[in-house]
Design a protein that fits this description.
This protein is mainly alpha-helical. It is built from 4 helices and no strands.
């Protein structure tokens, strides 16, 4: 067993649960995955990432950015602080 395996797993589960709670009822795996991918893309772009930056990556539509952008921003911020 890896020494940090349990802590990392717990942290991942907690992040996923928080994301699902913030989305509310009807959260699907697809929605959660979109938010997580968007948050990771925001982190890779770096500080000052804009809606347009996300759309220009070709990974997200304008509709997705409008629907999930705020939640993805919150998750990206939490991920950056945890790193």
């Amino acid at each position: 067993m890896q020494p940090n395996g349990g802590i990392q797993t717990r942290n991942t589960i907690e992040r996923m649960a928080e994301t699902m709670r913030s989305i509310g009822e009807g959260c699907t795996d697809q929605t959660r995955n979109t938010i997580e991918r968007m948050a990771e893309t925001m982190r890779s772009i770096g500080e000052g990432c804009t809606d347009r930056d996300l759309i220009l990556t070709g990974k997200f539509s304008e509709r997705q950015v409008k629907l999930f952008g705020q939640r993805a921003t919150e998750l990206a911020t939490a991920m950056a602080r945890a790193a």
